[in-house]
Amino acid sequence: MTRFVQLMSAPGVYLRMLVATVAFALTAYLHYESVTLTLYYSIICIFLMQIGYVGGVLFLIWRESHAKKKTKSCANKIVVSFPEGGEAGLRTHTLKD
C-alpha cells in the first residue's frame, strides 16, 4: 500500500502520465499514420488516465477513513478476563460515555 501511495504523488504521476501519453501517441501515429487520429486517441488516453488517477485518490481516501473507523470502534472495546470453572474466559465489554 505504501508503494501505491508513493506512485500516486502528484508531480510524479503527471510525469508518468505524460510519458505514457507520448508513447501511446507515437504508437498510434505509427499505426494510423494520421495526426488527427493520433491527437484524438491521445486526448482519450489522457482523459482515461485522469479518471484512473481520481479513482485511485478516492480509493486512498476511502481506505484511510475506513481504517480510522475500524480503529475507533476497536478503541471503544476492552477485554476483561473472568474466572469460570477454574479457567479464565475472555469477554468483551464496550465502554459507554
Brief summary:
This protein is α+β, with helices and mostly antiparallel strands and 97 residues long. The protein contains 3 helices and 2 strands; from the N terminus they run αααββ. 72% of the residues lie in helices and 16% in strands.
What labels would you give this structure?
97 residues, alpha+beta, 3 helices, 2 strands, 72% helix, 16% strand
Fold topology:
Blueprint: H1 2-7, H2 10-32, H3 35-75, E1 77-84, E2 87-94
Antiparallel strand pairs: 1-2
Helix pairs in contact: 2-3
Q: How would you describe this structure to a colleague?
A:
- By secondary structure, this protein is an alpha+beta fold.
- It has three helices and two strands, in the order αααββ.
- Strands 1-2 form a two-stranded antiparallel sheet.
- A hairpin with a 2-residue loop joins β1 and β2 (87-94).
- α2 (10-32) packs antiparallel against α3.
- The longest helix is centred in the middle third of the chain and has 41 residues, at 35-75.
- It is elongated.
